Predict the structure.
Amino acid sequence: MRPQYLVALPLLLLVLLYPLLLAAPAAEAGVALGAACAGGTTVHVQLYVFTDYGEEDLVGVVVQRGWIGICGLERLVTAEPFPFPPLLTGAGYAFDDHVPQAGRYFAYRAYVVNAAGELHGAAGLGDPLPYDYAACGEAVATRGHLVGIDGSPPAVYVEFLQCQEDCWFTDFGWHPVYLDVSELDPATYEPYVGQPVAVDVYGDIYVDGMPGASGIYDITRIEPAPDGVCGPVPARTTSWGALKHSYR
């Protein structure tokens, strides 16, 4: 039998926490963001925002655009925050952006702005995430090193160690990372396996909150990176004021 003080402990905690449970909840938002090339002339960005209970008062959602493989070029692509819908409801928003340069991905990420003007990374909505990537045509999805080969035709995979320094895609849903190269000519990637040569991987970036889902699919080619290295970049911090100043 449990000691009596352990039986009474949950009731005591409830009494002590009751005033906090009655406190008026503040707003929090979950955001789903999707971006895709539209006709080769624009990138169409869509958001779905759901307002829920949380820890702070929030006033809206903004979207930042960066690059895959290029750090330090983050820009705000929404002039003003998209407003939060009423508590426990959702709202959809959309806008168009210009296309990235050939061979590159744009990286879009949603941020929430609170009543004090502070910027925070938005939470997702389960499987839908508050960020996405878009390219118009074949583009470099990530850069790194080919560590080894696994499997045999028709299913061939290469173990991949991605570069961390240059804002390359690293959001793989599994580790170690294996890339499906079944559709590629082995002569185009085998010479770089186990070598200290960084390679560029061209393919489709897909992100999803489901465990193991995010990754690079439909790989079209692998080739040596310029100079064969990852390359360091300076660290940056982002604020709402800086993002607003850099609009477009």
